[in-house]
Write the C-alpha coordinates for this entry.
Amino acid sequence: MAAQKPGIPKGTRDFSPLEMAKRNYIFNTIRSVYALYGFKQIETPAMENLSTLMGKYGEEGDKLLFKILNSGDFLHGMTPDEITGTSTLKLAAKLCEKGLRYDLTVPFARYVVQHREELNLPFKRYQIQPVWRADRPQKGRYREFYQCDADVVGSDSLLNEVELMQIIDSVFQKFGIRVCIKINNRKVLSGMAELIGRPDKLTDITIAIDKLDKIGLDNVKAELTANGLSQDEITRLEPVFAIKGDNSNKLAAVRELLKDNETGLKGIEELEFVLNTLQTLPIVNAIDFDLTLARGLNYYTGCIFEVKALDVQIGSITGGGRYDNLTGIFGMPGLSGVGISFGADRIFDVLNQLELYPKDIASAAQLLFINFGPKESAHCIQLASRTRQAGIRTEVYPDSVKMKKQMSYASNSNIPFVALVGEDEMKNNTVSLKNMETGEQRSLSIEEAISVILQ
Protein backbone atom coordinates (compact mmCIF):
# COMPACT_ATOMS: atom_id res chain seq x y z
CA MET A 1 0.00 0.00 0.00
CA ALA A 2 1.41 3.39 -1.06
CA ALA A 3 2.23 5.86 1.70
CA GLN A 4 -0.38 8.61 2.09
CA LYS A 5 0.72 11.93 0.61
CA PRO A 6 1.23 14.49 3.42
CA GLY A 7 -0.94 17.62 3.55
CA ILE A 8 -1.62 20.68 5.69
CA PRO A 9 -4.72 21.64 7.73
CA LYS A 10 -7.58 23.33 5.86
CA GLY A 11 -7.35 27.11 5.87
CA THR A 12 -3.54 27.19 6.13
CA ARG A 13 -0.92 27.72 3.41
CA ASP A 14 2.66 26.94 2.46
CA PHE A 15 4.58 29.90 1.02
CA SER A 16 7.11 29.31 -1.75
CA PRO A 17 10.41 31.25 -1.90
CA LEU A 18 8.81 33.68 -4.41
CA GLU A 19 5.73 34.17 -2.20
CA MET A 20 7.97 34.69 0.84
CA ALA A 21 10.00 37.31 -1.07
CA LYS A 22 6.75 39.14 -1.87
CA ARG A 23 5.44 38.85 1.71
CA ASN A 24 8.73 40.08 3.16
CA TYR A 25 8.60 43.04 0.78
CA ILE A 26 5.16 43.90 2.24
CA PHE A 27 6.19 43.41 5.88
CA ASN A 28 9.52 45.23 5.48
CA THR A 29 7.84 48.20 3.76
CA ILE A 30 5.23 48.52 6.53
CA ARG A 31 7.89 47.97 9.23
CA SER A 32 10.14 50.69 7.76
CA VAL A 33 7.32 53.28 7.77
CA TYR A 34 6.24 52.36 11.33
CA ALA A 35 9.85 52.84 12.46
CA LEU A 36 10.04 56.27 10.74
CA TYR A 37 7.26 57.45 13.05
CA GLY A 38 8.93 56.15 16.21
CA PHE A 39 6.87 52.97 16.69
CA LYS A 40 8.66 50.13 18.51
CA GLN A 41 8.12 46.45 17.76
CA ILE A 42 6.83 43.93 20.28
CA GLU A 43 5.82 40.27 19.98
CA THR A 44 3.44 38.25 22.15
CA PRO A 45 3.16 34.44 22.39
CA ALA A 46 1.16 32.48 19.80
CA MET A 47 -0.88 31.06 22.68
CA GLU A 48 -2.53 32.97 25.48
CA ASN A 49 -4.42 31.79 28.57
CA LEU A 50 -8.03 31.18 27.56
CA SER A 51 -9.08 33.40 30.46
CA THR A 52 -7.36 36.27 28.56
CA LEU A 53 -9.18 35.53 25.29
CA MET A 54 -12.68 34.31 26.25
CA GLY A 55 -15.49 36.87 26.36
CA LYS A 56 -13.54 39.54 24.44
CA TYR A 57 -14.87 38.86 20.93
CA GLY A 58 -18.55 38.14 21.63
CA GLU A 59 -20.26 34.76 21.52
CA GLU A 60 -19.35 34.14 17.87
CA GLY A 61 -15.70 34.99 18.47
CA ASP A 62 -15.51 32.60 21.44
CA LYS A 63 -16.61 29.77 19.13
CA LEU A 64 -13.83 30.63 16.66
CA LEU A 65 -11.01 30.33 19.21
CA PHE A 66 -8.61 27.44 18.65
CA LYS A 67 -8.25 25.77 22.07
CA ILE A 68 -5.17 23.79 23.13
CA LEU A 69 -5.51 20.60 25.19
CA ASN A 70 -3.71 20.70 28.55
CA SER A 71 -0.39 18.88 28.42
CA GLY A 72 0.04 15.43 29.92
CA ASP A 73 -3.03 13.52 31.11
CA PHE A 74 -5.67 16.14 30.25
CA LEU A 75 -8.48 13.86 31.55
CA HIS A 76 -6.87 13.56 34.98
CA GLY A 77 -9.38 13.86 37.82
CA MET A 78 -12.46 13.65 35.57
CA THR A 79 -15.09 10.95 36.05
CA PRO A 80 -16.52 8.99 33.05
CA ASP A 81 -19.90 10.69 33.72
CA GLU A 82 -18.32 14.14 33.51
CA ILE A 83 -16.62 13.23 30.24
CA THR A 84 -19.78 11.90 28.55
CA GLY A 85 -22.38 14.06 30.24
CA THR A 86 -20.79 17.50 29.96
CA SER A 87 -21.53 19.86 27.04
CA THR A 88 -18.67 20.29 24.56
CA LEU A 89 -18.06 23.89 25.66
CA LYS A 90 -17.95 22.97 29.38
CA LEU A 91 -15.68 20.04 28.62
CA ALA A 92 -13.33 22.27 26.62
CA ALA A 93 -13.19 24.68 29.58
CA LYS A 94 -11.97 21.82 31.82
CA LEU A 95 -9.54 20.28 29.30
CA CYS A 96 -8.06 23.47 27.82
CA GLU A 97 -6.42 26.32 29.69
CA LYS A 98 -4.75 27.90 26.64
CA GLY A 99 -5.75 28.98 23.12
CA LEU A 100 -4.16 30.42 19.98
CA ARG A 101 -4.51 34.20 19.76
CA TYR A 102 -7.49 35.42 17.69
CA ASP A 103 -6.12 38.92 17.00
CA LEU A 104 -3.28 41.18 18.16
CA THR A 105 -5.46 43.72 20.02
CA VAL A 106 -6.46 41.67 23.08
CA PRO A 107 -2.89 40.31 23.61
CA PHE A 108 -1.68 43.93 23.30
CA ALA A 109 -4.19 45.05 25.97
CA ARG A 110 -2.95 42.21 28.21
CA TYR A 111 0.68 43.24 27.52
CA VAL A 112 0.00 46.89 28.45
CA VAL A 113 -1.70 45.94 31.75
CA GLN A 114 0.95 43.34 32.63
CA HIS A 115 3.92 45.64 31.83
CA ARG A 116 2.32 48.95 32.84
CA GLU A 117 5.12 49.84 35.27
CA GLU A 118 7.82 49.49 32.57
CA LEU A 119 6.01 51.40 29.83
CA ASN A 120 6.89 54.96 28.87
CA LEU A 121 3.60 56.64 27.92
CA PRO A 122 2.50 57.41 25.29
CA PHE A 123 3.48 53.91 24.17
CA LYS A 124 3.77 53.48 20.38
CA ARG A 125 3.96 49.82 19.44
CA TYR A 126 3.72 47.81 16.27
CA GLN A 127 3.27 44.07 15.91
CA ILE A 128 3.43 41.85 12.80
CA GLN A 129 2.44 38.28 13.71
CA PRO A 130 0.07 35.48 12.69
CA VAL A 131 -3.37 35.01 14.29
CA TRP A 132 -5.70 31.98 14.17
CA ARG A 133 -9.47 31.67 13.77
CA ALA A 134 -11.46 28.43 13.50
CA ASP A 135 -13.49 30.00 10.69
CA ARG A 136 -14.91 28.18 7.66
CA PRO A 137 -12.12 28.50 5.07
CA GLN A 138 -13.12 30.16 1.79
CA LYS A 139 -11.53 32.33 -0.91
CA GLY A 140 -9.55 35.07 0.82
CA ARG A 141 -10.38 33.80 4.31
CA TYR A 142 -7.87 31.64 6.13
CA ARG A 143 -7.59 30.02 9.54
CA GLU A 144 -4.04 31.30 9.92
CA PHE A 145 -3.15 34.79 8.67
CA TYR A 146 -0.95 37.75 9.54
CA GLN A 147 -1.95 41.08 11.06
CA CYS A 148 0.23 44.23 10.92
CA ASP A 149 -0.95 46.48 13.75
CA ALA A 150 0.28 49.83 15.06
CA ASP A 151 -1.23 51.48 18.16
CA VAL A 152 -0.56 54.49 20.38
CA VAL A 153 -1.87 54.15 23.95
CA GLY A 154 -1.85 56.68 26.74
CA SER A 155 -2.52 59.80 24.65
CA ASP A 156 -5.83 61.51 23.76
CA SER A 157 -4.20 63.83 21.21
CA LEU A 158 -5.66 63.86 17.71
CA LEU A 159 -2.12 64.31 16.36
CA ASN A 160 -1.92 60.52 16.72
CA GLU A 161 -4.82 60.14 14.26
CA VAL A 162 -3.05 62.54 11.87
CA GLU A 163 0.19 60.51 12.06
CA LEU A 164 -1.62 57.22 11.45
CA MET A 165 -3.23 58.72 8.32
CA GLN A 166 0.24 59.84 7.17
CA ILE A 167 1.55 56.31 7.78
CA ILE A 168 -1.27 54.84 5.67
CA ASP A 169 -0.55 57.35 2.88
CA SER A 170 3.23 56.66 2.98
CA VAL A 171 2.85 52.86 2.93
CA PHE A 172 0.57 52.87 -0.12
CA GLN A 173 2.78 55.43 -1.88
CA LYS A 174 5.72 53.05 -1.41
CA PHE A 175 3.66 50.15 -2.79
CA GLY A 176 2.46 52.26 -5.74
CA ILE A 177 -1.19 51.41 -4.90
CA ARG A 178 -3.71 54.23 -5.43
CA VAL A 179 -6.12 54.28 -2.51
CA CYS A 180 -8.94 56.27 -0.95
CA ILE A 181 -8.57 56.70 2.81
CA LYS A 182 -12.06 56.94 4.32
CA ILE A 183 -12.59 58.58 7.70
CA ASN A 184 -15.59 58.99 10.01
CA ASN A 185 -16.20 59.35 13.75
CA ARG A 186 -18.23 57.08 16.02
CA LYS A 187 -19.45 60.15 17.97
CA VAL A 188 -21.10 61.40 14.75
CA LEU A 189 -22.83 58.02 14.37
CA SER A 190 -23.87 58.13 18.06
CA GLY A 191 -25.22 61.64 17.46
CA MET A 192 -27.36 60.33 14.59
CA ALA A 193 -28.76 57.51 16.76
CA GLU A 194 -29.57 60.09 19.50
CA LEU A 195 -31.09 62.46 16.90
CA ILE A 196 -33.75 59.91 15.96
CA GLY A 197 -34.27 59.03 19.65
CA ARG A 198 -32.76 55.53 19.44
CA PRO A 199 -29.34 55.59 21.14
CA ASP A 200 -30.10 51.99 22.23
CA LYS A 201 -29.97 50.96 18.55
CA LEU A 202 -26.49 52.41 17.80
CA THR A 203 -24.96 48.96 17.20
CA ASP A 204 -27.76 47.85 14.86
CA ILE A 205 -27.65 51.17 12.99
CA THR A 206 -23.86 51.11 12.51
CA ILE A 207 -23.81 47.46 11.41
CA ALA A 208 -26.53 48.18 8.81
CA ILE A 209 -24.97 51.47 7.59
CA ASP A 210 -21.60 49.71 7.22
CA LYS A 211 -23.18 47.48 4.55
CA LEU A 212 -24.49 50.37 2.40
CA ASP A 213 -21.75 49.93 -0.24
CA LYS A 214 -22.35 46.19 -0.46
CA ILE A 215 -26.15 45.82 -0.31
CA GLY A 216 -27.60 49.23 -1.27
CA LEU A 217 -30.00 51.64 0.49
CA ASP A 218 -33.20 49.54 0.18
CA ASN A 219 -31.60 46.51 1.82
CA VAL A 220 -30.09 48.69 4.59
CA LYS A 221 -33.60 50.08 5.28
CA ALA A 222 -35.01 46.53 5.35
CA GLU A 223 -32.32 45.50 7.86
CA LEU A 224 -33.06 48.53 10.06
CA THR A 225 -36.77 47.64 9.98
CA ALA A 226 -35.96 44.05 10.95
CA ASN A 227 -33.91 45.42 13.86
CA GLY A 228 -36.91 47.29 15.27
CA LEU A 229 -36.61 50.81 13.85
CA SER A 230 -39.90 52.43 12.82
CA GLN A 231 -40.54 53.85 9.34
CA ASP A 232 -40.47 57.37 10.82
CA GLU A 233 -37.05 56.78 12.47
CA ILE A 234 -35.59 55.41 9.23
CA THR A 235 -36.99 58.42 7.30
CA ARG A 236 -35.27 60.77 9.78
CA LEU A 237 -31.97 58.95 9.18
CA GLU A 238 -32.26 59.26 5.38
CA PRO A 239 -30.85 62.82 4.95
CA VAL A 240 -27.57 61.41 6.25
CA PHE A 241 -27.30 59.15 3.18
CA ALA A 242 -28.04 62.05 0.82
CA ILE A 243 -25.15 64.29 1.98
CA LYS A 244 -22.71 64.87 -0.90
CA GLY A 245 -19.84 67.19 -1.86
CA ASP A 246 -16.26 67.64 -0.73
CA ASN A 247 -15.15 67.07 2.87
CA SER A 248 -15.83 70.65 4.03
CA ASN A 249 -19.34 70.66 2.46
CA LYS A 250 -20.16 67.33 4.09
CA LEU A 251 -18.85 68.49 7.48
CA ALA A 252 -20.96 71.66 7.25
CA ALA A 253 -24.09 69.67 6.31
CA VAL A 254 -23.62 67.19 9.18
CA ARG A 255 -22.87 70.03 11.61
CA GLU A 256 -26.25 71.58 10.64
CA LEU A 257 -28.06 68.24 11.03
CA LEU A 258 -26.52 67.61 14.48
CA LYS A 259 -26.48 71.24 15.65
CA ASP A 260 -28.39 70.42 18.84
CA ASN A 261 -26.50 67.22 19.62
CA GLU A 262 -23.43 67.58 21.85
CA THR A 263 -21.99 64.11 21.08
CA GLY A 264 -22.30 64.54 17.32
CA LEU A 265 -20.76 68.04 17.38
CA LYS A 266 -17.77 66.72 19.36
CA GLY A 267 -17.24 64.12 16.60
CA ILE A 268 -17.44 66.83 13.91
CA GLU A 269 -14.83 68.90 15.81
CA GLU A 270 -12.45 65.94 15.96
CA LEU A 271 -12.88 65.24 12.24
CA GLU A 272 -12.30 68.91 11.36
CA PHE A 273 -9.05 68.98 13.31
CA VAL A 274 -7.72 65.81 11.61
CA LEU A 275 -8.82 66.82 8.09
CA ASN A 276 -7.61 70.44 8.40
CA THR A 277 -4.22 69.34 9.73
CA LEU A 278 -3.83 66.80 6.92
CA GLN A 279 -4.50 69.57 4.38
CA THR A 280 -1.29 71.27 5.52
CA LEU A 281 0.74 68.10 4.83
CA PRO A 282 1.96 66.57 1.54
CA ILE A 283 -0.63 63.75 1.42
CA VAL A 284 -0.80 62.02 -1.98
CA ASN A 285 -3.85 59.74 -1.67
CA ALA A 286 -7.48 60.90 -1.50
CA ILE A 287 -8.99 61.34 1.98
CA ASP A 288 -12.76 61.13 2.09
CA PHE A 289 -15.09 61.92 5.01
CA ASP A 290 -17.56 59.03 4.59
CA LEU A 291 -20.65 59.20 6.80
CA THR A 292 -21.58 55.60 6.00
CA LEU A 293 -18.29 54.23 7.35
CA ALA A 294 -19.10 52.50 10.64
CA ARG A 295 -16.50 49.72 11.20
CA GLY A 296 -18.34 46.82 12.81
CA LEU A 297 -16.27 46.63 16.00
CA ASN A 298 -18.02 48.23 18.93
CA TYR A 299 -14.95 49.20 20.93
CA TYR A 300 -14.26 52.21 18.63
CA THR A 301 -15.25 55.52 20.25
CA GLY A 302 -13.74 58.30 18.07
CA CYS A 303 -12.25 58.65 14.58
CA ILE A 304 -12.42 55.50 12.45
CA PHE A 305 -10.55 54.76 9.21
CA GLU A 306 -10.79 52.36 6.31
CA VAL A 307 -8.76 52.12 3.11
CA LYS A 308 -10.08 51.06 -0.30
CA ALA A 309 -7.87 50.27 -3.32
CA LEU A 310 -8.98 52.32 -6.35
CA ASP A 311 -7.74 50.04 -9.16
CA VAL A 312 -8.82 46.61 -7.88
CA GLN A 313 -12.19 45.24 -6.73
CA ILE A 314 -11.44 44.06 -3.17
CA GLY A 315 -12.68 44.76 0.37
CA SER A 316 -10.99 47.13 2.78
CA ILE A 317 -7.17 46.70 2.84
CA THR A 318 -6.50 48.68 6.05
CA GLY A 319 -8.68 49.79 8.93
CA GLY A 320 -8.57 51.17 12.44
CA GLY A 321 -9.75 53.81 14.86
CA ARG A 322 -9.77 55.37 18.33
CA TYR A 323 -10.89 53.37 21.37
CA ASP A 324 -11.23 54.74 24.90
CA ASN A 325 -10.97 51.68 27.05
CA LEU A 326 -8.71 49.01 25.54
CA THR A 327 -7.33 47.90 28.92
CA GLY A 328 -10.66 48.12 30.78
CA ILE A 329 -11.32 44.47 29.88
CA PHE A 330 -8.46 43.63 32.26
CA GLY A 331 -9.53 45.94 35.07
CA MET A 332 -7.37 48.94 34.17
CA PRO A 333 -9.81 51.58 32.87
CA GLY A 334 -9.16 54.97 31.37
CA LEU A 335 -6.32 54.27 28.94
CA SER A 336 -7.20 55.69 25.53
CA GLY A 337 -5.62 54.41 22.34
CA VAL A 338 -5.79 54.64 18.57
CA GLY A 339 -4.56 52.08 16.06
CA ILE A 340 -4.52 50.76 12.51
CA SER A 341 -4.08 47.33 10.96
CA PHE A 342 -2.83 46.64 7.42
CA GLY A 343 -4.43 43.62 5.72
CA ALA A 344 -1.26 41.90 4.47
CA ASP A 345 -3.09 39.13 2.57
CA ARG A 346 -5.31 41.56 0.67
CA ILE A 347 -2.35 43.88 -0.07
CA PHE A 348 -0.52 40.78 -1.42
CA ASP A 349 -3.45 40.14 -3.81
CA VAL A 350 -3.61 43.79 -4.93
CA LEU A 351 0.15 43.96 -5.64
CA ASN A 352 -0.15 40.69 -7.62
CA GLN A 353 -3.10 41.89 -9.69
CA LEU A 354 -1.47 45.24 -10.48
CA GLU A 355 2.01 43.66 -10.94
CA LEU A 356 3.58 46.26 -8.66
CA TYR A 357 6.31 44.14 -7.07
CA PRO A 358 9.93 45.22 -7.68
CA LYS A 359 11.44 43.64 -10.81
CA ASP A 360 14.12 41.70 -8.89
CA ILE A 361 11.72 40.37 -6.21
CA ALA A 362 12.22 36.76 -7.37
CA SER A 363 16.00 36.94 -7.28
CA ALA A 364 17.61 35.69 -4.08
CA ALA A 365 21.16 35.99 -5.47
CA GLN A 366 22.60 38.68 -7.76
CA LEU A 367 25.64 36.70 -8.89
CA LEU A 368 26.43 33.05 -9.57
CA PHE A 369 29.98 31.69 -9.99
CA ILE A 370 30.06 28.76 -12.45
CA ASN A 371 31.90 25.69 -11.13
CA PHE A 372 34.51 24.32 -13.61
CA GLY A 373 36.19 21.95 -11.13
CA PRO A 374 37.92 21.75 -7.71
CA LYS A 375 40.77 24.19 -8.51
CA GLU A 376 38.47 26.80 -10.06
CA SER A 377 35.77 26.47 -7.38
CA ALA A 378 38.39 26.98 -4.61
CA HIS A 379 39.38 30.23 -6.36
CA CYS A 380 35.70 31.25 -6.84
CA ILE A 381 34.91 30.74 -3.13
CA GLN A 382 37.57 33.36 -2.33
CA LEU A 383 36.19 35.77 -4.94
CA ALA A 384 32.65 35.17 -3.63
CA SER A 385 33.71 36.22 -0.12
CA ARG A 386 34.86 39.56 -1.64
CA THR A 387 31.60 40.13 -3.55
CA ARG A 388 29.59 39.29 -0.41
CA GLN A 389 31.65 41.80 1.61
CA ALA A 390 30.68 44.37 -1.02
CA GLY A 391 27.02 43.54 -0.27
CA ILE A 392 26.33 41.42 -3.37
CA ARG A 393 24.18 38.34 -2.75
CA THR A 394 26.38 35.59 -4.23
CA GLU A 395 26.23 31.85 -4.90
CA VAL A 396 28.95 29.45 -6.03
CA TYR A 397 27.43 26.48 -7.89
CA PRO A 398 28.35 23.52 -5.65
CA ASP A 399 28.89 20.80 -8.33
CA SER A 400 31.08 20.86 -11.46
CA VAL A 401 28.30 19.63 -13.76
CA LYS A 402 27.62 20.58 -17.38
CA MET A 403 27.73 24.30 -18.06
CA LYS A 404 24.21 24.18 -19.57
CA LYS A 405 22.74 22.88 -16.29
CA GLN A 406 24.48 25.60 -14.28
CA MET A 407 23.29 28.35 -16.65
CA SER A 408 19.72 26.96 -16.48
CA TYR A 409 19.93 27.14 -12.69
CA ALA A 410 20.92 30.84 -12.92
CA SER A 411 18.14 31.53 -15.40
CA ASN A 412 15.44 29.69 -13.40
CA SER A 413 16.59 31.44 -10.20
CA ASN A 414 16.40 34.89 -11.87
CA ILE A 415 20.08 35.55 -11.07
CA PRO A 416 21.02 38.60 -13.18
CA PHE A 417 24.81 38.00 -13.42
CA VAL A 418 26.97 34.90 -13.95
CA ALA A 419 30.75 34.85 -13.45
CA LEU A 420 32.85 32.36 -15.42
CA VAL A 421 36.34 31.79 -14.02
CA GLY A 422 38.52 29.28 -15.87
CA GLU A 423 42.32 28.83 -16.09
CA ASP A 424 42.86 32.00 -18.17
CA GLU A 425 40.82 34.16 -15.81
CA MET A 426 42.64 32.73 -12.77
CA LYS A 427 46.00 33.50 -14.40
CA ASN A 428 44.94 37.09 -15.34
CA ASN A 429 43.08 37.77 -12.09
CA THR A 430 39.84 38.50 -14.00
CA VAL A 431 36.32 37.14 -14.30
CA SER A 432 34.13 36.81 -17.39
CA LEU A 433 30.94 38.52 -16.26
CA LYS A 434 27.79 37.65 -18.20
CA ASN A 435 24.66 39.82 -18.02
CA MET A 436 21.84 37.26 -18.17
CA GLU A 437 19.30 39.78 -19.45
CA THR A 438 21.32 41.23 -22.37
CA GLY A 439 23.63 38.24 -22.98
CA GLU A 440 26.64 40.61 -22.98
CA GLN A 441 29.85 39.07 -21.58
CA ARG A 442 32.93 41.09 -20.50
CA SER A 443 36.34 40.32 -19.03
CA LEU A 444 36.72 42.41 -15.85
CA SER A 445 38.76 42.58 -12.66
CA ILE A 446 36.77 41.56 -9.57
CA GLU A 447 36.58 45.25 -8.49
CA GLU A 448 35.16 46.25 -11.88
CA ALA A 449 32.67 43.36 -11.77
CA ILE A 450 31.52 44.47 -8.30
CA SER A 451 30.89 48.04 -9.49
CA VAL A 452 28.99 46.80 -12.61
CA ILE A 453 26.70 44.60 -10.46
CA LEU A 454 26.10 47.35 -7.89
CA GLN A 455 25.17 49.98 -10.54
